[in-house]
Prior knowledge:
The protein is 49% helix and 17% strand. The protein is built from 6 helices and 4 strands. Strands 1-2-3-4 form a 4-stranded mixed sheet.
Amino acid sequence: MMLAIPVLVFLIGWAVMKTRLQVVTVIAVVGCLPGCNEVVHAIMASRYHSMDKKLYEEVEAARGDRMALYENVFTTYDKNYVVDCIIISGREVLGYSSEEKTDAKAAETHLTTILKQNSYKQNVKIMKNREAYLTRVKELASGEPEEVPFREDERCPGMTRDEVVSYILQSISL
């Protein structure tokens, strides 16, 4: 649908003006960009599997009121990192990856760098052991979240610190 409208505009312009060399062609090409972007995202996302439903249910039961992100694929110029689940609590960003190819240390470094570039100092930990991850999630949920000094971010008005960190992570994930 996102590509149909620009193609229709191009075809109508071509039929009316009897040439492709016109401003309507440029408008149609620029109009295709959002649709093409969505196609690329769909192709990239289709390469990865959904997380285990049982893991989702276990995390939901354990996380309490902590913020959670599911099915993340973080991309860099060199590699992609699949992180099934991330819990955000104060300065803690705790993730779990069931993907064997995901280098947990490199993913931690990448996420720490991105958050630091956005002025958020977080303790990022990506775990590969499911039981240890669930245990740590329960520990985070049972305690009080760390009080972190926070000034409202003008890029994200009305959001809490955890919501802004979540927003940053979602913006770099497929």
